[in-house]
Amino acid sequence: MVLPFNSVETFSINVSEKHELFRRAVREFMEREVAPHVEKGEKEGTIPKEILEKAKEIGLYGVSVPEQYGGQGGDTLMTAIAQEEISRVWPSLSTRISVGGLFMTPILLFGNEEQKKKYVIPVARGDKVAAFANTEPSAGSDVAGIQTTAKKVNGKYVINGRKIFITNGGIADYYVVTARTSPPDPNTRWKGISMFIVEREWKGVKVLNRIETMGLRASNTAELAFEDVEVPAENLLGEEGMGFKYAMATFDRTRVGVAAQGVGVAQAALERMVTYATQRFAFQSPLIGFQMVQEKIAESLTEVNTARLLTYWAASLFDRGLENEAIVAASMAKLYATDIAEKVAIRAITVHGGYGVATSTGVERLLRDVEVMRIYEGANDIQKLVILRETARRLLGIKM
To answer: Is residue 2 part of a domain?
Structure first.
């Protein structure tokens, strides 16, 4: 036993030539087609339609979704690689695409065949935009604290409530929405939450406002209201009262993608730091010749590659069907990769000096972007609790 895992075999990573070929294809697309639009897109808060269409053409919306549901049929590692490479160039685009996965995952895990065909296929193909409406003004990390309600009336569910900080919220065609179908039990607060698929065009679905954020500024973040929204019974996802469990299972699987986003941002910061340090001269010497700069680069090289290995390992565990180990590893990867992305971005800014804080260089944007990543899909402080509790419960058989 290698605490907390059973064997050193657990630590293998399944990387093949197809993964590297896929990486090269995504990187070429991002550098050739996307990079020229990043600065303008961030200033205007939008992602050009032509970029979204080209991403659709090469299948970036449903990388690991089964082919029968409109995806590419790839594995979890391919999705991680895609998110890393997209985030290396434009994290806002990565977020726009990855939230589609956040929507599709619970449907693929718990939905019926009709729901998968109706809602997953168009999102996986990039024909429709989707969002995951879970967070509320008074319920973020405390998912069990949601107050949105869904009451059954004449064979339909009527949803009332507000959601906030919803990525793609203002542009989505479909939402997965969590709502209470029964009051919380004081001893088991998570019970009574259900999950629904809601369409934007339905009466009572309202986008209240777009929320401006410090980072990922080209990503659409919105506050939503659901006012007497009638949802057909067939749009209940899975079983009534199981929405909390479904949400947790979804985050367990999509967290690897956030880790990969962190790796992408960290890689971008590292590359910019090295490039600038070799080109910029001070005191008649390139910056890379100074020991303090060398130290920053060496630490960053070590941490970025460690984060990548941790992220790829978590993805490989999912692909090998080792769910308990994968869930723990995914939280570790999310925590570590986004934390070190923050550190590397700060080092890159420091090495750039005044240019590091100038918005025209794009270096400071990396720090702003990663601060958002450290919060969504399970804030990093919460991940520390998840790592300990899930390790105890899933791997050591200890109740906490």
So the answer is: no
